[in-house]
Amino acid sequence: MSEGNSSTHEPSNPSPQLLSRRRLIQAAGAGAFAAAAAPALAQQAQPGQAASPPTTITTPPRDFSRGGAPTTYFWDPDVIAVDPVFNSLAQPNAAIQRLWTGGLWLEGPAWNAQGRYLVWSDIPNNRQLRWLEDDGRVSVFRMPSGYSNGNSFDFQGRQLSCEHLNRRVVRYELDGSATVLADSFEGKKLNSPNDIAAHPDGSYWFTDPPYGGQLYEGAPDAAGGPSNANGKINPRLGQPPGIGLAKRELPTNVYRLDPGGRLDLVIREEQVPDPNGLCFSPDFKKLYVASTGKGPGDTGPGGKGDIHVFDVGTDNKLSNGKRFSDCMIDGINCGPDGLRCDVEGNLWASSNAGRHVGYNGVIVFNPAGKVIGRIRLPEVCGNICFGGPKRNRLFMAASQSIYALFLATQGAGPG
User: Fold this and answer.
1) Structure letter (DSSP) for residue 85
2) CA atoms of 39 and 41, how far apart (whole Å)
3) Residue 176 zone, left/alpha/beta (φ > 0; ψ -120 to 50; rest)
4) pLDDT tens for each residue of 321-351
């Protein structure tokens, strides 16, 4: 039947307004069909109901750009309550937002409460960037950055950075100077400090896996070192003087830097191989550590993509170490990286599930290790932090982009 004889009684020569309306309806119908035909992981339309809005795993994928369609539904389709308790943590009328894109591999988001800005690392570009909360402007904050990875702020508001290239931990003082906090242990150069957490007693705890020993995120070992065993790579190319001469000497450990400057080994490689992200519980009585896969030239046991937890004694000794979660969801390893706790003691972990679209993003665990919620992102998520003036916004550094989501809870501790 022709449109002119249809039951809608539209004229055979419709006006431009009707054509625009008709195209809009057709486009909406196509979108609904795409949502309904999405893979099983997508939220499906129920009989007699409209199709769900697009998610990260529909075809075509959800558009997170500024030009994309807004998500005006209560409960963002990519914020998933696995357990009803998560409903008290998520904000029903808040949507995932992409704040910025254009990096190579983003890491180490950290919130400066006094300055109301987010800083993060763009490791391969050897720079740190800053997002201003008042107007959303992004600019280069520090370049070169020593191929920094993890960043944080201590209880005095000073920025802490883990540098891959220089194999050290640095603190940026309030007067603008910089202090090298640690670059060696027992006379041996650190591998490539990755993530760091401040403790109220003035100490700093950090992980030291080997991921900086590669061309993309730092500098390989000198010839004969674990990440350059055959010596064919020239680690000095494109680097400042003195870089590319070191070889990895230490296992992948976790350290505590005492306020007096003493560096203690607190977790050995045999306990948590290839330690990555770490954070304390809100009461600082537990330490969570993510264990990831083998790094370049890594001859150690290698991580299994899981999270470990330890009790922290009043003497700063760790005990009762155990696996907190294997990070398996639907048979897929959602490899953890960055970790943060909220004020209720729930653990929020970034998820790197690789090509398993729909499993990248953030996983939320209750203190017992049960998965209670998920946030799906269209990119692998490397690290997270809580921020915003009320510390109720989750910032997610995901591959090339920064995402954010307002929550109904607050993050614990400084950014």
Assistant:
1) G
2) 5
3) left
4) 999 999 999 999 999 999 999 999 999 999 9
